[in-house]
Amino acid sequence: QVQLVESGGGLVQSGESLRLSCVASRRFFGIANMGWYRQVPGKQREFVANWNTLGPTNYTESVKGRFTISGDDAITGDAAKPTVFLQMDRLKPEDTAVYSCNLDGWTSEMSGRMTYWGKGTLVAVSS
Hints:
Blueprint: E1 4-7, E2 10-13, E3 18-24, E4 30-39, E5 46-51, E6 58-59, E7 67-72, E8 83-88, E9 97-106, E10 114-117, E11 121-126
Parallel strand pairs: 2-11
Antiparallel strand pairs: 1-3, 3-8, 4-5, 4-9, 5-6, 7-8, 9-10, 9-11
């Protein structure tokens, strides 16, 4: 069973920074994408950013220029386990949400492609 564990959330003031981390519990045969989503209670989950080793990073418009995603798939990189980070600078109150990471990939050569989710970490930004 795959687990994704996020860390780094917290309460900060507007304009400050946080760095989120997400580590998978095992190595993968292949990874299509690793990314971050966020959700405010009562609203739909929103895409924030995603990353892979072969393509460009993608960001939702509201975080461009403020957030930076990076990672290591533990296949082409040096990490022991797949890891994805989200550096969040110049945070705004509207960034307040539960941030969850996801991993889209194959655990083995014979497995199907699946998407896995972490439980989330709370980011709260006060004005």
